[in-house]
Write a structure and sequence with these properties.
This protein is an alpha/beta fold and 515 residues long.
Length: 515
């Protein structure tokens, strides 16, 4: 076990009196780390330190900052297996998925290392002689980044890499239950040559984080907030930032629909539903929420989905399994509430419902279920538009299924919960694809692919209850961490007034061709 504390300006803060333990959810007797928690004033202090370091970091030429990003990618690549094993141990993500998560950091760095040479502005023609107009991307300043722990290293990299590349300094507050993974990623970033104070790591609980952020905004030492987490907390952060006329980058929850049309490849759709519904034990923001299946194939789909889910290996995440445990105790407690929403609906997918124990076993379980926070996967058939299970995000291994008659009805059902992160349709008809794309409110649409999965060069983000329209990844995230600055340079030697001192060329608008 290691003891972790916040690191500000390159120096570890004293442990203080308040600590929490990060436990291995696959084996609750395994304490991964003891974590010292910062107080609100220490959160503010970290932001102040980052603010003081920002001008010097912004003065480093952007191509040089890009080379630092390249070095981060190479360090992560060299430590890929070690970091993935730590992620698996700390949050219970199957090792194959953890390797994919670490690869996403590498891909992100590979994309953004070149963006240091492409932080382009534009030369804009002026309406007056002897005058030039320009635009520039400039750093926002200091960013406070608050991330969840279901993707403890990949999602933070979506924020940290572009923010640092653009010349911002960062205070990063990771989830307490993923503190060891965060500390490891912080070490890899700083060993790439980041100056002290450019990246700061703060461990704090939710209440003190919010209080510290509020005080830092008042003190004007935070210029941008990035948050990945629940819609409820994201709404509070959005309101707080709005008081200070700031637009945060909010990546929130999802109730992601998958429409299965009557002409779909059902085996392919089932494979996608299994991966997106139960991968990471259903604890992704892009996890499948509801499968909306055409009535003509509804029963056949449920039968196949049930068989595939029952056959999926579950258990010890260090083994070859589809999913492991819940991330932490608090997610297990929340999931128990979601199970109460099933009501009288028929369930499929496993040999039981609820926590997997010797008295409530799952056939084929890998390992010892008594050690960890393992739950049966649940397919709930016949959900309706009035069910809480249909309307609310359910963070865990539970997927609803409902029939539809027309595609318009399916699109209406897909939009009804009000989330708008990810969506999918399975069909062989291009007309259905384009009708679905035009009608769905989600920021991301997949065709014959699952709701989960992101590539480092494509915009990631949602609308409605899933976010405020901000986007991560690819070139689009540059707009989150830079501001446009315009420059007009008049070298005429006189004051030229726009819209007033503009030369005019008079046309003869009365001219007509002879018939």
């Amino acid at each position: 076990m290691q003891t972790l504390t916040s690191v500000v300006g390159g120096r570890a803060l004293p442990a203080g009196g308040r600590t929490v333990r990060s436990l291995n959810p696959a084996d609750l007797s395994d304490v991964v780390a003891e974590v010292g928690l910062a107080r609100p004033y220490e959160v503010v202090g970290a932001c102040r330190t980052a603010k003081e370091a920002q001008r010097a970091w912004a003065a480093v030429p952007a191509p040089v900052r890009g080379r630092v990003i390249s070095s981060i990618g190479r360090l992560v690549e060299a430590n890929k297996e070690r970091l993935a094993r730590l992620v698996t141990r700390e949050i219970g993500k199957p090792y194959a998925e953890a390797l994919g998560e670490v690869q996403e950091i590498i891909d992100t760095c590979d994309f953004f290392l070149g963006e240091g040479r492409r932080l382009y502005g534009q030369t804009v023609p002026s309406e007056m002689p002897d005058k030039q107009l320009f635009t520039f991307r400039v750093p926002v300043g200091t960013a406070m980044i608050i991330t969840a722990g279901n993707f403890p290293v990949a999602v933070p990299s979506w924020y940290l890499v572009p923010a640092l590349l653009c010349g911002n300094t960062v205070v990063w507050k990771p989830a307490e239950y993923a503190a060891a993974s965060a500390a490891a990623l912080y070490e890899l970033f700083t060993h790439a040559g980041l100056p002290e104070g450019v990246l700061n790591l703060v461990h704090a609980d939710g209440g003190d984080t919010f209080a510290g952020l509020s005080d830092a905004l008042v003190a004007r030492v935070v210029d941008k907030v990035g948050f990945t987490g629940s819609s409820r907390v994201g709404s509070r952060i959005g309101s707080l930032c709005g008081l200070h006329l700031q637009k945060p980058c909010l990546e929130l929850g999802g109730k992601n629909p998958m429409v299965v049309a009557e002409d779909a490849d059902l085996d392919l759709a089932v494979e996608a539903a299994l991966f997106s519904g139960f991968g990471t034990a259903g604890q992704r923001c892009t996890s499948l929420g509801t499968v909306i299946v055409h009535e003509s194939v509804h029963q056949d789909f449920v039968r196949r989905f049930d068989a595939a889910t029952r056959a999926a290996p579950a258990g010890d995440p260090t083994q070859d399994v589809v999913f492991g445990p819940m991330l932490a105790e608090r997610f297990a407690e929340s999931y128990e509430k979601y199970l109460g929403w099933i009501g009288d609906h028929p369930t499929y997918g496993s040999t039981g419902v609820g926590r997997i124990t010797p008295d409530n076993p799952r056939e084929g379980f890998v390992g010892d279920p008594a050690k960890g926070l393992y739950y049966h996967p649940v397919i709930v058939d016949g959900v309706t538009r009035d069910d809480e299970l249909f309307r609310q995000e359910t963070f865990g291994p539970i997927v609803g299924v409902m029939p539809y008659t027309t595609l318009d009805e399916a699109i209406e059902l897909a939009n009804l919960p009000g989330y708008g992160l990810s969506s999918a349709i399975y069909t062989t008809d291009p007309a259905k694809v384009f009708a679905f794309r035009a009608g769905i409110g989600a920021g991301m649409v997949s065709v014959n692919n699952s709701t989960s999965g992101a590539e480092a060069h494509l915009p990631f983000g949602g609308n409605g209850r899933s976010g405020n329209g901000s986007r991560q990844s690819g070139q689009w995230v540059l707009d989150e961490f830079t501001r446009w600055q315009s420059l007009n340079w008049d070298y005429s030697g006189r004051l030229q007034k726009a819209q007033m001192d503009v030369a005019t060329i008079e046309p003869d608008l009365h001219f007509r061709l002879e018939s």
